[in-house]
Amino acid sequence: MRPIRLHAAIALAPLLALAPGAGANPGAQTLPELDRAALQRCIADERESRALLERHAEERAAVAASAHALDTERRALEALRAATDPRDARAIERYNARAANFDAQVRRHNAALAALEKSRQAQRTVARRYNENCAGRHYQPHVLREAPLQD
After folding, report:
1. Which contacts of 47-50 are long-range, i.e. CB under 8 A and separated by 24 or more positions?
2. 35 vs 47: CA distance, rounded Å
3. Which residue among 17, 81, 130, 137 has the highest number of C-beta atoms inside a 10 angstrom radius?
4. What is the DSSP secondary structure assignment for residue 31, as one 8-state letter?
């Protein structure tokens, strides 16, 4: 089994890519084979890692869209401020309301950034666990088959 990459932009290695003995380096330390329970944990970790990568990509796209919207709104707010007559109380109220809305958008964006970092760390934790327990380990092709029922 190959290690899972930690970056979303790099394709993940197929879970069951190596047959026993394939790709082994002569002289490299041979790790013990995975038993059924260990292989099932590896499969679960690989699936979780992929799901977390997909969620992270979606969150990253949402944060990028939010950043673009904030940039657009910041420019509009700057233009409104330049056009606002400081003697016009209603114009100042409109500007202040829009600025308050912008501040709320910034707080939501910052919360999304924090969540994005947490999702990245969660995926890295799963990938690290997979790499420590599964990468470079082999298994017998039949290990996932159900044991035949005894009469």
Report:
1. 48/126, 49/4, 49/12, 49/123, 49/126, 49/127, 49/130, 50/12
2. 18
3. 130
4. P
Rounded Cα distance, 19 and 96, in Å? 65
Domain locations in the chain as residue ranges: 1-143
Query: What's the start-to-end Cα distance of the chain, in Å?
Result: 36
Per-residue pLDDT tens over the stretch 34-72: 888 999 999 999 999 999 999 999 999 999 999 999 999
Tokens of 80: 């409104």
Look at residue 104 in the predicted model and tell me its pLDDT.
96
* Geometric angle at alpha carbon 52, from 47 and 56, rounded to 5°: 150
Distance, CA of 20 to CA of 113 (rounded, Å): 42
